[in-house]
Amino acid sequence: MSNNQLKTNALKCDIVENALFIGKYDFPKLKRTDSIPENIIPFNCKCNSAKEKHWVHFYIDDYKFEKIWNNPKRYLDVLKKYAGVIGSDFSTYLDMPLAQQIWNLYRNRAISHFWQDNDIDVIPNVQWGDENSYEYCFDGIPSGGTVAISTNGAINGNLERYYFKKGLSKMIEVIKPKTVINYGSMPDDIFAEYKTGKINFIHFNNYNDIVRGRCCCNG
To answer: In angstroms, what CA-CA distances link 41 with 6, 58, 127, 183?
Structure first.
Protein backbone atom coordinates (compact mmCIF):
# COMPACT_ATOMS: atom_id res chain seq x y z
CA MET A 1 0.00 0.00 0.00
CA SER A 2 1.36 3.43 -0.98
CA ASN A 3 1.82 6.29 1.47
CA ASN A 4 -1.14 8.12 -0.11
CA GLN A 5 -3.31 5.03 0.25
CA LEU A 6 -2.29 4.67 3.89
CA LYS A 7 -3.20 8.29 4.57
CA THR A 8 -6.56 7.92 2.85
CA ASN A 9 -7.30 4.76 4.78
CA ALA A 10 -6.45 6.40 8.12
CA LEU A 11 -8.56 9.50 7.46
CA LYS A 12 -11.40 7.55 5.78
CA CYS A 13 -11.52 10.07 2.93
CA ASP A 14 -12.91 7.41 0.61
CA ILE A 15 -16.16 6.99 2.53
CA VAL A 16 -17.17 10.60 1.88
CA GLU A 17 -15.83 10.98 -1.65
CA ASN A 18 -19.34 11.46 -3.05
CA ALA A 19 -20.64 13.59 -0.18
CA LEU A 20 -22.04 17.10 -0.21
CA PHE A 21 -20.51 18.92 2.76
CA ILE A 22 -22.62 21.23 4.89
CA GLY A 23 -21.99 23.90 7.54
CA LYS A 24 -19.04 25.27 9.45
CA TYR A 25 -17.35 21.90 9.93
CA ASP A 26 -18.19 20.30 6.57
CA PHE A 27 -20.43 17.52 7.83
CA PRO A 28 -21.64 15.19 5.06
CA LYS A 29 -25.26 15.83 4.13
CA LEU A 30 -27.50 12.81 4.64
CA LYS A 31 -30.52 11.74 2.60
CA ARG A 32 -34.02 11.89 4.00
CA THR A 33 -35.88 8.71 4.81
CA ASP A 34 -39.49 8.26 5.90
CA SER A 35 -38.95 4.69 7.06
CA ILE A 36 -40.21 3.58 10.49
CA PRO A 37 -38.71 0.45 12.08
CA GLU A 38 -40.87 -2.29 13.53
CA ASN A 39 -38.00 -3.73 15.59
CA ILE A 40 -34.54 -2.49 16.46
CA ILE A 41 -31.55 -4.39 17.82
CA PRO A 42 -28.09 -3.29 18.94
CA PHE A 43 -25.16 -3.77 16.58
CA ASN A 44 -23.47 -6.16 19.01
CA CYS A 45 -26.48 -8.49 19.12
CA LYS A 46 -26.17 -11.78 17.25
CA CYS A 47 -29.52 -11.98 15.54
CA ASN A 48 -30.46 -15.45 14.35
CA SER A 49 -34.03 -14.70 13.32
CA ALA A 50 -35.28 -12.97 10.17
CA LYS A 51 -32.81 -10.11 9.80
CA GLU A 52 -34.91 -8.33 7.19
CA LYS A 53 -37.44 -7.51 9.94
CA HIS A 54 -34.93 -5.69 12.15
CA TRP A 55 -33.10 -2.38 12.11
CA VAL A 56 -29.65 -2.07 13.66
CA HIS A 57 -28.85 0.69 16.15
CA PHE A 58 -25.62 1.86 17.82
CA TYR A 59 -26.91 3.09 21.18
CA ILE A 60 -24.24 1.04 22.92
CA ASP A 61 -20.76 1.74 24.30
CA ASP A 62 -18.51 3.26 21.64
CA TYR A 63 -15.85 0.58 21.92
CA LYS A 64 -18.41 -2.03 20.85
CA PHE A 65 -18.75 -0.50 17.40
CA GLU A 66 -15.48 1.42 16.89
CA LYS A 67 -14.61 -1.29 14.35
CA ILE A 68 -17.21 0.02 11.90
CA TRP A 69 -15.14 3.20 11.63
CA ASN A 70 -11.81 1.41 11.53
CA ASN A 71 -12.97 -0.91 8.75
CA PRO A 72 -16.29 0.36 7.33
CA LYS A 73 -16.30 -1.76 4.18
CA ARG A 74 -15.98 -4.97 6.15
CA TYR A 75 -19.44 -4.59 7.69
CA LEU A 76 -21.40 -3.53 4.61
CA ASP A 77 -22.59 -7.01 3.70
CA VAL A 78 -23.58 -7.69 7.30
CA LEU A 79 -25.66 -4.52 7.60
CA LYS A 80 -27.29 -5.01 4.20
CA LYS A 81 -28.99 -8.13 5.54
CA TYR A 82 -31.15 -5.97 7.81
CA ALA A 83 -34.12 -3.75 7.01
CA GLY A 84 -32.04 -0.68 7.73
CA VAL A 85 -29.70 1.08 10.11
CA ILE A 86 -30.08 3.92 12.61
CA GLY A 87 -27.05 6.17 12.20
CA SER A 88 -24.03 5.57 14.42
CA ASP A 89 -23.84 7.14 17.87
CA PHE A 90 -20.24 7.97 18.71
CA SER A 91 -20.57 9.83 22.00
CA THR A 92 -20.81 13.62 22.45
CA TYR A 93 -21.00 14.01 26.22
CA LEU A 94 -21.28 17.49 27.70
CA ASP A 95 -17.97 17.15 29.55
CA MET A 96 -16.01 15.99 26.51
CA PRO A 97 -13.60 18.44 24.84
CA LEU A 98 -15.41 20.34 22.10
CA ALA A 99 -13.00 19.12 19.44
CA GLN A 100 -13.83 15.52 20.33
CA GLN A 101 -17.57 16.19 20.23
CA ILE A 102 -17.27 17.71 16.75
CA TRP A 103 -15.07 14.85 15.54
CA ASN A 104 -17.54 12.26 16.76
CA LEU A 105 -20.45 14.07 15.10
CA TYR A 106 -18.44 14.15 11.88
CA ARG A 107 -17.79 10.42 12.16
CA ASN A 108 -21.49 9.76 12.69
CA ARG A 109 -22.41 11.72 9.57
CA ALA A 110 -19.57 10.24 7.50
CA ILE A 111 -20.32 6.59 8.24
CA SER A 112 -24.06 7.17 7.77
CA HIS A 113 -23.37 8.79 4.39
CA PHE A 114 -21.21 5.81 3.44
CA TRP A 115 -24.03 3.40 4.26
CA GLN A 116 -26.54 5.44 2.29
CA ASP A 117 -24.10 5.62 -0.61
CA ASN A 118 -24.08 1.82 -0.55
CA ASP A 119 -27.86 1.45 -0.70
CA ILE A 120 -28.56 0.96 3.01
CA ASP A 121 -31.64 2.70 4.38
CA VAL A 122 -30.37 4.94 7.19
CA ILE A 123 -32.37 6.89 9.74
CA PRO A 124 -30.17 9.86 10.70
CA ASN A 125 -29.19 9.92 14.37
CA VAL A 126 -29.35 13.37 15.98
CA GLN A 127 -27.23 14.47 18.95
CA TRP A 128 -26.69 17.80 20.67
CA GLY A 129 -24.99 19.29 23.71
CA ASP A 130 -25.50 22.72 25.23
CA GLU A 131 -26.58 25.84 23.33
CA ASN A 132 -23.13 26.23 21.79
CA SER A 133 -23.62 23.00 19.85
CA TYR A 134 -26.65 24.32 17.96
CA GLU A 135 -24.48 26.10 15.40
CA TYR A 136 -23.27 22.76 14.01
CA CYS A 137 -24.99 19.73 15.59
CA PHE A 138 -27.93 19.69 13.16
CA ASP A 139 -25.83 20.23 10.04
CA GLY A 140 -26.24 17.47 7.48
CA ILE A 141 -29.50 16.17 8.99
CA PRO A 142 -32.32 16.29 6.41
CA SER A 143 -35.57 17.95 7.36
CA GLY A 144 -39.12 16.64 7.24
CA GLY A 145 -38.47 12.90 7.48
CA THR A 146 -37.61 10.33 10.13
CA VAL A 147 -34.79 10.93 12.59
CA ALA A 148 -33.62 9.07 15.69
CA ILE A 149 -32.57 10.21 19.16
CA SER A 150 -31.80 8.48 22.43
CA THR A 151 -32.34 9.31 26.09
CA ASN A 152 -30.19 6.32 27.05
CA GLY A 153 -27.52 7.75 29.39
CA ALA A 154 -28.43 11.29 28.31
CA ILE A 155 -30.85 12.36 31.08
CA ASN A 156 -29.28 10.89 34.19
CA GLY A 157 -28.49 14.18 35.94
CA ASN A 158 -30.35 17.46 36.25
CA LEU A 159 -27.93 19.30 33.96
CA GLU A 160 -28.07 16.59 31.30
CA ARG A 161 -31.85 16.52 31.57
CA TYR A 162 -32.05 20.30 31.14
CA TYR A 163 -29.88 20.35 28.04
CA PHE A 164 -31.58 17.32 26.51
CA LYS A 165 -35.02 18.94 26.82
CA LYS A 166 -33.76 22.25 25.47
CA GLY A 167 -31.94 20.58 22.59
CA LEU A 168 -34.96 18.47 21.71
CA SER A 169 -37.03 21.61 21.31
CA LYS A 170 -34.32 23.18 19.16
CA MET A 171 -33.98 20.04 17.03
CA ILE A 172 -37.72 20.02 16.30
CA GLU A 173 -37.59 23.71 15.41
CA VAL A 174 -34.63 23.32 13.04
CA ILE A 175 -35.18 19.88 11.48
CA LYS A 176 -38.99 19.74 11.60
CA PRO A 177 -39.09 15.93 11.55
CA LYS A 178 -42.23 14.00 10.68
CA THR A 179 -41.23 11.05 12.86
CA VAL A 180 -38.82 10.80 15.79
CA ILE A 181 -37.55 7.41 16.91
CA ASN A 182 -36.55 7.51 20.57
CA TYR A 183 -34.46 4.79 22.17
CA GLY A 184 -34.80 4.80 25.95
CA SER A 185 -37.25 6.23 28.45
CA MET A 186 -39.64 9.06 27.57
CA PRO A 187 -40.43 10.89 30.83
CA ASP A 188 -43.38 13.28 30.77
CA ASP A 189 -41.37 16.27 31.98
CA ILE A 190 -39.46 16.12 28.68
CA PHE A 191 -41.87 14.56 26.17
CA ALA A 192 -45.42 15.31 27.35
CA GLU A 193 -45.80 18.41 25.17
CA TYR A 194 -44.99 16.38 22.05
CA LYS A 195 -47.23 13.38 22.66
CA THR A 196 -50.34 15.04 21.22
CA GLY A 197 -48.59 17.09 18.56
CA LYS A 198 -48.08 16.68 14.83
CA ILE A 199 -44.82 14.80 15.23
CA ASN A 200 -44.99 11.03 15.41
CA PHE A 201 -42.82 9.81 18.31
CA ILE A 202 -41.95 6.11 18.22
CA HIS A 203 -40.65 4.65 21.49
CA PHE A 204 -38.27 1.71 21.80
CA ASN A 205 -37.27 0.50 25.25
CA ASN A 206 -33.64 0.18 26.27
CA TYR A 207 -32.59 -3.25 25.04
CA ASN A 208 -31.02 -4.12 28.39
CA ASP A 209 -34.38 -3.52 30.06
CA ILE A 210 -35.89 -6.17 27.79
CA VAL A 211 -33.15 -8.76 27.74
CA ARG A 212 -30.79 -8.82 30.72
CA GLY A 213 -27.38 -10.30 29.99
CA ARG A 214 -28.21 -11.99 26.70
CA CYS A 215 -29.22 -11.15 23.16
CA CYS A 216 -32.24 -12.52 21.40
CA CYS A 217 -34.31 -11.25 18.54
CA ASN A 218 -37.99 -11.81 18.18
CA GLY A 219 -38.72 -12.81 14.62
So the answer is: 34, 9, 19, 11
Q: Which residues contact 5 (CB under 8 A, 6 or more apart)?
A: none
Q: At residue 139, what is the residue type? A: D
Rounded Cα gap, residues 46 and 27, in angstroms: 31
Judged by average pLDDT, the poorest of 50-54, 59-63, 140-144 is 50-54
Neighbouring-strand partners of residue 147: 180
| Cα–Cα–Cα angle for 97, 100, 105, rounded to 5 degrees | 130
CA atoms of 69 and 105, how far apart (whole Å) = 13
Side-chain half-sphere of 214: how many Cα atoms within 13 Å? 3
Q: Which of 72, 40, 69 has the alpha carbon at shortest distance from 56?
A: 40
Residues pairing with 150 in the sheet = 183
pLDDT at 151 over 50: yes
What count of Cα atoms within 13 Å lies in the side-chain half-sphere of residue 202? 16
Q: Which residues contact 95 (CB under 8 A, 6 or more apart)?
A: none
pTM for this one?
0.90
CA 198 to each of CA 35, 148, 180, 185, 207: distance values in angstroms, whole numbers, following the listed order? 17, 16, 11, 20, 27
DSSP for residue 124:
P
DSSP 178: S
